[in-house]
Amino acid sequence: MDRNKQDVENLKTMWKRDYEQKAHDALKFIKTTIDESVETSGEMVNFYNQLKNGVLLCKLVNALKRGTCTIPETRFASPREGELIKLAIIGMEQLGVTGLFQKDDLVEMKNLTKWLTAICTLQENKN
Q1: Domain boundaries in the chain?
Q2: Residue 82: is it exposed, middle or buried by C-beta count within 10 angstroms (0-12/13-18/19+)?
Q3: Would you tell me the crossing angle of helices 20-34 and 112-126 to the nearest 10 degrees?
Q4: What pLDDT is attached to residue 1?
């Protein structure tokens, strides 16, 4: 098996063992908070697919504090990759969640656990 494939398989195994339930709970928190349909499977690929464009993250931040993360309206093109994630990071920092994550952790699927931790922190701060 090629090294990258082995790394991906190891990551999936670790995710399933350690983070799948937390990811499910985090996506369920987002779904409940924004009152929209969100696939809440805690599988790593689903967690990534739900968050990768930043839309749900911006909606979550706005639901927690109105006007914090305005999604730009564009007529001819969707926001560039990572633009909404940057806005979500700014909004999360305004809500007190700082230093845990970077745009590339999500865009490049490098460290999804940091994003999972950030969402869990938002949930804890809400309660």
Answers
A1: 3-126
A2: middle
A3: 50
A4: 46
Give pTM, 2 decimals.
0.83
User: Scanning the structure block, which residue is given the tokens 């983070």?
Assistant: 19
CATH class of 3-126: mainly alpha
Region 6-10: mean pLDDT is: 76
| Residue predicted with more confidence, 97 or 74 | 97
C-alpha separations of 99 from 23, 69, 103, 121 in Å: 20, 18, 11, 12
CA dist 120 and 26 (Å) reads 6
Cβ–Cβ contacts within 10 Å for residue 59, how many? 20
* Cα 27 from Cα 127, distance rounded (Å): 16
Distance CA 40, CA 51 (A): 11
Backbone angles phi, psi at 124, to 5 degrees: -65, -40
Residue 50 has pLDDT above 80, yes or no: yes
